[in-house]
Automatic annotation (TrEMBL):
Lineage of source species: Bacteria, Bacillati, Actinomycetota, Actinomycetes, Streptosporangiales
Organism for this UniProt entry: Streptosporangium becharense
Assigned keywords, A-Z: Iron, Iron-sulfur, Metal-binding, S-adenosyl-L-methionine
GO molecular function: catalytic activity; cobalamin binding; iron-sulfur cluster binding; metal ion binding
Family annotation (InterPro entries): BchE-like, Cobalamin-bd, Elp3/MiaA/NifB-like_rSAM, rSAM, rSAM_sf
Name of the protein in question: Radical SAM superfamily enzyme YgiQ (UPF0313 family)
């Protein structure tokens, strides 16, 4: 039997399929967005593979398809499966390993390939710890090398690792990583492929119409039926100086910013619209700051298909931003002129010292970081006012906890967060609020603090903050260093013990609960 099937799988959240995990602040039912939209990264790989007539690529999303059904499919079709490929984040890596082991048990000749942020942050650790993984890819610019690798496997050709930028493989000397290279943002999606293996579009649509559609009708008076992510660019203004926020675990890969041309961006929006999606979720980080040139170009060259639609007929666009970007009325006017009706902002809601500890200010290392952080906080209020004046909704995100946080800092941060929620709720600008305890994930600066006592102490000393004693720091670091499986809540608790010794995890969980309760009292929805 010829092996031609290639499964590109998004594993389910590990907490939903592996028992015994702590779920104090990481309850799956509180994080439902994943099952409202297809996974664009997986669809890009499947769409690229479809160009090879010798292959049968299958898109599988474990957030909507039951794990037992996925495993059963692998068992029943093992003889014709060429490769099982997994896109893993920290939250679903352990479930991804479960699938990879199952594939190898079903037929050792199945090749397993892994990628995405968690693996990109820990490629050698993951390959050393998991023999069930044959190959991996690091970074984002991997569509070309990945499709060429799968083609070589299909033809049973010898794999020369140097020919596949971003490839992670084993040789006699250990784990090796081929340096990545630049490639353009992929945009040639085939949305029909979502349902070739499992009927997943009806599941996305059902979830979307249950959760998001009623909320958009309530807030905007618009009827939307189906949502989809659209990638017009990737990157973040903070990646330009390798200066990401402390909790950010995104792995930008070879490029700090990569984007389509204005014409290509409009084509990507049109393809999503004509495929039946009227709620387009722009995945690019910090749109008004990182992609101002792209957005300006799109504004200067609006295509006929968009102009022919009335404002009420056009798809609803949502995206990401920073408060300092939205506080600029010209940038916000540009967003709304392009159809963006909701922006998701990680609010800069803490004290200056807290914002500095989370590395929130742009360029703060070159200026007075505390003064810049205080300015950031003040811009939250300006952003709320500007958004209100331009008819833009804000989905506000807040993080509780940071390196060296004390009881006093926690209390002041909560006070500031509650004040912003009151303001956003009273003005009708906040469409929803997300509140999370800081989660140190591989690839993030906070995970470096968790695993390196020297880095933690140096960062704390720089801001006049305190961390635990050397014995505790060393004990915690040994727990997580060179560990491939990172259970989010266990890591949160150890982070609190080692890096916020003045607090308990229950203090943070209680603050989160208080903020959520206040948002509800202000009439602001939690989550959706």
């Amino acid at each position: 039997m010829q092996r031609d099937e290639v499964l590109v799988i998004v594993p389910p959240n590990s907490n939903t399929v592996i028992t015994g995990r702590l779920l104090t602040v990481t309850r799956p039912e509180e994080h439902s967005d994943w099952s409202d939209f297809l996974c664009l990264g997986a669809l890009s790989l499947v769409s690229a593979l479809k160009e090879n007539a010798a292959l049968k690529p299958l898109y599988v999303d474990g957030t909507v398809v039951a794990l037992d059904d996925v495993l059963r499919y692998i068992t029943d079709n093992a003889g014709r499966i060429l490769a099982v490929c997994l896109g893993v984040l920290t939250a679903n890596y352990e479930a991804g390993l479960l699938i990879a082991r199952h594939a190898k048990d079903a037929d050792p000749r199945i090749t397993t390939v892994v990628g995405n942020d968690h693996f990109s942050a820990l490629p050698r650790t993951c390959m050393d710890a998991a023999p069930c993984l044959d190959y991996g890819f690091v970074g984002n610019e991997v569509v070309g090398p990945f499709t060429r690798l799968i083609a070589a496997l299909r033809e049973r050709a010898e794999v020369d690792p140097a020919a596949y930028p971003g490839l992670v493989h084993r040789d006699g000397g250990g784990v090796r990583v081929t340096a990545p290279y630049r490639e353009p943002v992929f945009a040639n999606y085939d949305y029909t492929l979502v349902d070739h293996g499992f009927p997943q579009t009806p599941l996305y649509t059902k979830h979307f119409q249950t959760r998001i559609a009623p909320r958009i009708r309530e807030l905007l008076g618009r009827s939307v039926t189906a949502g989809v992510p659209v990638e017009i660019g990737r990157g973040c203004v903070k990646f330009a100086g390798d200066d990401a926020c402390s909790f950010c675990s995104i792995q930008p890969g070879h490029l700090w910013r990569n984007q389509l041309s204005p014409a290509q961006a409009w084509s990507a929006l049109e393809a999503a619209w004509t495929s039946g999606h009227d709620y387009l979720y722009l995945t690019a980080d910090e749109l008004p700051l990182t992609f101002a040139t792209l957005l300006s170009g799109m504004s200067r060259d609006v295509p006929g298909w968009w102009s022919a639609l009335s404002p009420e007929e056009r798809p609803v666009l949502v995206g990401y931003g920073r408060a300092d970007g939205i506080a600029d009325a010209r940038r916000t006017a540009l967003l709304t002129s392009l159809g963006v009706r909701q922006i998701m902002i990680g609010m800069d809601a803490g004290t200056p010292l807290s914002l500095a500890a989370m590395n929130k200010p742009v360029g703060g290392r070159r200026r007075d970081v505390l003064a810049e952080a205080e300015r950031l906080y003040r811009l939250n209020s300006d952003a709320i006012t500007v958004a209100r004046d331009h008819g833009l909704l804000i989905r506000a995100g807040f993080v509780v906890g940071h390196l060296g946080m004390t009881k006093e800092l926690l209390a002041e941060n909560v006070e500031r967060i509650l004040a912003l929620i009151t303001e956003g709720g009273r003005s009708g600008v906040f469409s929803a609020v997300d509140v999370e305890v800081l989660s140190p994930q591989p690839g993030a600066r906070d995970y470096t603090y968790l695993t390196s006592p020297a880095a933690a102490r140096q960062a704390a000393d720089r801001l006049g903050l305190s961390v635990a004693d050397d014995r505790t720091l060393t004990e915690v670091a040994r727990t997580w260093l060179r560990r491939d499986v990172v259970s989010p809540e266990d890591a949160m608790r150890d982070y609190t013990r080692a890096l916020m010794p003045d607090l308990t995890f229950d203090d943070l969980a209680g603050a989160r609960a208080a903020i959520r309760a206040h948002a509800k009292r202000c009439g602001v929805v939690i989550g959706e």
